[in-house]
Here is the input.
Amino acid sequence: MGYDTIQIKKLTPVVGAEVSGIDLTKPLSALQVAELKQALADHMVIFFRDQPIDFENHKTFARYFGGIHIAPSTAPWTVPGHPEITTIHADENSTFVAGEDWHSDMSCDPEPPLGSILYLHTVPEIGGDTVFSSMYAAYDGLSDRMKAYLEGLTAVHDAVVGFGGITPPGMTLPKSSHPVIRTHPMTGRRAIYVNRGFTVKIEGLPPHESAAILAFLYQHIQKPEYQCRFSWRPHSIAFWDNRCLQHSAIWDYFPNRRSGYRVQVTGEKPV
Ligand code: SIN
Here is the structure.
């Protein structure tokens, strides 16, 4: 579709677009916000270059799209004085990075975040890309028989998978049940909603059948034709829709530094 206030350049025919002609350090007009919402719906993840935002700009930008999602399980990495902002950082001392495996952010929460807005101010000279996979395309790529099999199934998403062992001992971690196939509230499109980062089992199936179906789906969603790959530059921003995408942060730059901040926008219970 056409836009009046922004320019769009698609990364692939399937998913992802770079947005230009906008300054996220300044207040946005209602039309700009409406067009960004449409761009997110059309492309699932939108990217911005050369946006040296501060904490307040970051929060203000998120609030144009909803409330700010605060996940207690990410509290150990929040910026002091800014519980809405999570630090995303890796350097020569890191033993893990956030989001290395394919996942949809915080799908363990009862109402997982609609979207995530990641700003990186420091990036390695090469490497450190983020890969995004369209769960619409992955759903469309299933056989009709598999679509019928998955219809109506629910799966358990447990934060212990993503955060167990890296959060302080004794912290209560969320666990939720969501449909295996969800419908996007804005586009009405169907999307696969199980991910290796959080999903532990499909309910009502024998354990070996659940494990086999999940293994098939995790392999299926990784098809390159469902994906785009974003190469960061300092002061780039990625804003992705967790309801129809999975992503994976590639840690190929150790011991170099990659650093920035993430804010998440509140979402709804998946249906
Ligand atoms: C995340 O999973 O939110 C982090 C993604 C990234 O660092 O590219």
The longest strand covers residues 82-90. DSSP finds six helices and 17 strands in the chain. The CA atoms of residues 201 and 208 lie 10 Å apart. The chain has a mean pLDDT of 95.
